Amino acid sequence: MKKTILAIAMLFSVVTNGQDFTGIWQDNGDTSYYIVILNNYEEGYIFSNFSFIEQDTVQEKFISKDENIITTVVHNSDNGWRVFIEYTYIDPNTIEVKYTGDIERTGLLYKQKIVKKDELVYAKKLKVQEKII
């Protein structure tokens, strides 16, 4: 019985650790791009970058994953531009990102939260009530 519980705990730990990168992330710098990281069990990691301001999307190709690091590549065949990207898990809300190739830069990505419309309306009501009081 103890072995079964230990095996379940280890499996849960592996599954939980694999989910640390998933979510919507954004650099706190001057970029308007968001990075969506999904972990599809059939296709592996999927990276989609998008910007509402630029009206653009960029797809990254997954290369590898170690314990706390995921490596991807972006290649623009029109101009030969290529960048390798290394994501390092820091904590549930922070990922370090390192760009090498045609861009050399390191930064931090922060997990973004999606707020439901009902929650946003409630939050606005609370702010209005705080101002009245």
Structure commentary:
With 133 residues, the chain is α+β, with helices and mostly antiparallel strands. The chain has a single domain (21-132), classed as Beta Barrel (Lipocalin). The chain contains 2 helices and 8 strands. The protein has helices at 2-18, 117-132, and strands at 23-27, 33-40, 44-51, 56-65, 69-76, 81-91, 94-101, 105-112. It has an 8-stranded antiparallel beta barrel with strand order 1-2-3-4-5-6-7-8. A hairpin with a 3-residue loop joins strand 2 and strand 3 (44-51). It starts with a helix and ends with a helix.
Residue stretches low in confidence (pLDDT < 50, at least 5 long) are: 1-19
Q: Between the first and last Cα atoms, what is the distance in angstroms?
A: 58 Å
CATH secondary-structure class = Mainly Beta
As for the CATH topology, it is Lipocalin
Keywords:
133 residues; alpha+beta; Lipocalin; 8-stranded antiparallel barrel; 8 strands; 25% helix; disordered N terminus
Précis, in short:
With 133 residues, this protein is an alpha+beta fold. It is 25% helix and 50% strand. β6 (81-91) and β7 (94-101) form a beta hairpin.
Give a topology summary:
Layout (H helix, E strand, L loop, with lengths): L1 H17 L4 E5 L5 E8 L3 E8 L4 E10 L3 E8 L4 E11 L2 E8 L3 E8 L4 H16 L1
Antiparallel strand pairs: 1-2, 1-8, 2-3, 3-4, 4-5, 5-6, 6-7, 7-8
